[in-house]
Specification:
- By secondary structure, the chain is an alpha+beta fold.
- It has 17 helices and 15 strands.
- It has helices at 14-40, 44-64, 67-86, 88-125, 128-140, 144-151, 184-201, 240-256, 258-262, 275-279, 299-334, 363-367, 388-399, 422-434, 444-456, 471-494, 512-532, and strands at residues 155-164, 170-175, 212-215, 218-224, 228-236, 284-285, 338-345, 350-356, 376-382, 406-410, 413-417, 460-461, 500-504, 540-544, 557-562.
- Strands 1, 2, 3, 4, 5 and 6 form a 6-stranded antiparallel beta sheet that branches.
- A hairpin with a 2-residue loop joins strand 10 and strand 11.
- Helix 15 runs antiparallel to helix 16 (471-494).
- It is elongated.
- Residues 1-12 and 288-296 have low confidence and may be disordered.
Amino acid sequence: MNTQDPNQPTGGNSGDDLASVKRLLLEQELHRLDDLEHLVNTPAPFQEKVEKVLPSAIIARCNQDQRLQQALEGPIETSIQESVRRDPHALANALFPIMGPAIRQSIRDTVAKMVESFNQTLDQSLSPQSIRWRIEAKMTGKSFAEVVLAKTLLYRVEQAFLIHRETGLLLAHAINPSIQSKDADMVSGMFSAIQDFVHDSFDVDQGDQLETMRVGDMNVIVRGGPSALLAVTVRGIPTADLSTRIDEILEAIHRRFSQALETFEGDTQPFSETIPLLEDSLETKQNLTEEAKETKPAYHWWALAIVSLLTVCLVTFLYIRASNWNQLVQEINNTPGLAVQEAKLGWKHKTISGLRDPLSRPPMEIIEKFYDPSTIEHNWKPYQSLENEFLLKRLRKAANPPAGTEIKMSEGKLSLSGTPSFEWLEKLELLTNAQAGSIEFDLSHHKFRALRKRIESIVVPFGVGSSEIDPNARYRITLLSSDIQSLKQINRDLGKVTSIDVIGMADKAGNPAINERLSRERANRVIALLESLNISSNTLNSHAAFDANSSENNRRCVVFRIRN
């Protein structure tokens, strides 16, 4: 046995004693302060409380007066203007559900009028009458159109009804003096009832309406505006000009009486001024000869068939062309790491621009499936995708896992295989926290195993018959104390209690009783040094591993074993 060197430190001093007293007295308060700081630095609980009361608070404030709406009006208007200036496509996409039906309705109306006018012109321009009518136009000095108009279909507009769109009430009525009048309110109610019947019985959009009805030679043309409907009864076959005239009258009524239409509550007196406009539609056009009744030649149907065929071919070509383009844009958007921001399909130029993660599939590989890449201009700006596939690739590249360690991802959660070091796990944790996106990755168990392996691999050596700790061993124990503190924090996160056995050992040489006492002294010396380094005594358990009957020649050292 060696005697203690008086110049060696005793393992504690008054300053350490004071620190121990502070720790004993204030340890619980310090833990509470840590918990309070964690609560303040974690905004999630406060955010949840605000989310619960914010909607009801806004509703309650709006019910009091208009100050909140007035305060928000300026910022919202400015935000919309800035959004439109920065990216007009966003507002265009938002208005698409409204503009789309309106545009389609306009196209349907235009095409219907075009076909109606085309049929009439075709009927007359390809027949023998057209030759006679052109001669007549030359001799009389009239235009060919005037002669055709005088020789064609007979019709008479008998009545015009202005009906409130929302209530179905009759606002004004005009009637041709040559016919007998019936109850206009009853007729208006029947129009509304028929419109309701169509909407209730068939699968049509709410904004659509019944536009024409025909019984024998009596036609009813209905045109709808935002606030009113204009229905006219026509005996005979109406022309495209009449439909245009009806639309113009309805538009004029909406321009001049928009305020009265919007505020209508049952008083029809303000709409008496619309009667002159309605009377403008009560026109009569008569056919002065019977020439129009002659049998029409069959060859004009061939011309109509050729035009129809060309139209079908053109529409089919345009549809296939647009379909291929849309498929290309959709496949690019469906490819992870690629996002199309703008795609233009022109007759001479086709352009695609968007965002691309550097780790994604090259867009050129997709474009080659549909088009010659040289015919498309494409521009891609780099960005970092938040999709799990790319988050994992970037994390692997930055972390550089050691041999035998692999980072995997399943359902948005990361997992590790292998036995990496504690230092690498801390590096991975920092990278995970700094990674953009949401990654669920709990490294506590991995860090616990790594620390346990490292702590249990530490051996504190002693000289023969000595329980003194040399400077090298002291430095090793100082590093050990930092690992124990980290282990305690991990165990707190996992809800575990840290308990470490400090095991003193001695070889078989000498007196067994002295060796057993020496083993315990060595363990106690290490514990005392760890306590001076702020390791709680409750964490450390002293043990002597000497066994005089053991055949193993135990080492002269102290080792560590973690219980949990």
